[in-house]
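Can you make up a polypeptide sequence alongside its tokenized fold?
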Amino acid sequence: MHPDWVTKHKQKGTNIARIGGRYYLYAVNSVWNKDKKRAQKITKQYLGRITPQGLTPPKQKPQQTPPQTTPSVKEYGATNTINQLGQDILTQLQKNFTQTQAQQIFTLATLRVIQPSPFKRAQTQYQTSYLSETYPNLNLTKNHLTQFLKTLGTNRDAILEFMKPYINKNQHILFDGTNLHTKSKKRPHSRKGYNSQEDYEPQIILLYAFAVKSKMPAYYRILPGNIRDVTAFKLSITEADLKDAVVIADKGFGSKANFDMLSELGLCYIVPLKRNSVFFDPSRLKNGDKAVFDGYFLFNERPIWFYKLSEGVVVFLDEALKCEEEAHYLFNVESELEGYSLEGFLEAQFRFGTIILRSNVLSAPRELFGLYKVRGEIEQMFDFLKNLLDQDRSYMSDQYGLEGWAFVNHVSLMLLYRVYDLLRVKELLGRFSVADFLTYLKCIFKVKIDGVWHLSEVTQKTNELLETLNLHIT
């Protein structure tokens, strides 16, 4: 028999053992022994030593944690290139934010250009990139970034100060906006909107100013998706302190009310009109006589014919575009797609290849056409932002998180344009997209051997590309 101070600890599923005059408590269970044909107790776990003072649990063994390891091979080529191209951007960030904040913004923006993916993967991308050696000890974990973006978004003044040097007041600046779907009415600024695609889903509008010469994003502002009033342009021009701005809108913007308000506000504009606009009569083009045009110019080595109408309207005819559109329409006729027919082709044939612009900018038709075409290049880059929106919804649950998200992506767009311009200047855009180019660079690694980082082998094709671009990866 055990003393009372011992037996009081015995519960169902436990057993007391006396060893060397001391009492111990164990967890047990009962299993059937087929050989002995009886139940047999099996000791499962030691629960502690019993003393008059109570039960003393067993000492916990220190938990063995695996040593923290860092990758010994890290992506280097792409991050190093963008780091070189964007040093002035980092310097400007450091003037308006703390050193750590500046490095976090620049690193996040760089990672997004190299591999567009949600912020929740940023820490993993950072650890496997040589940026973690260039800018060490940054916290890019999901929970930290949530608060970081909100804090960043509260400081619109610092964001504006960052953008100012990139807005050259003596340079032509154009405005462009893009609709981004949020798929939730609860998102900040998310409203049922409308765009040229007749899309009424909840959306926000990112209004951007671009420097025409460099084609670089210079300024952004977030608007609710239901704001289509031109007063938004006026307020944005005031906030950015722009002196020479041109609003280049989409076809859905070309209403009489909008034109009247643009004029009342004293804003310069270039607005494309729909081909069924009252300002455009295709009958003028029916005889195919080029004498109906006021002249032509070469744009990207293709002839563009034009003639001027009243109200600042200019009609352009791009013969190459006309052939493309005719072929596309007839292909759809051959495919028997609904809405396409030979009758429809004959009715629309004189509208193919035409671009109708209305503007109060006193520019030669060549300059007017060139400014409008800049918008097309800009729209291609906006796909970068649209691909990121759905991935990052958790970071945009309030107004400040959305602002922080937009600013990091603004810096990403700036870096993306640096890469784009590098390829454009060397006339390589016909051979490589930005994504293709970065894919080549991402195959260049740094390898850590005996504590020293070494550059990995580089293929001959990549070396030739780097030499063409005068890039030095060391």
About this structure: Residues 190-200 have pLDDT under 50 and may be disordered. DSSP finds 16 helices and 17 strands in the chain. Residues 4-56 form one domain.
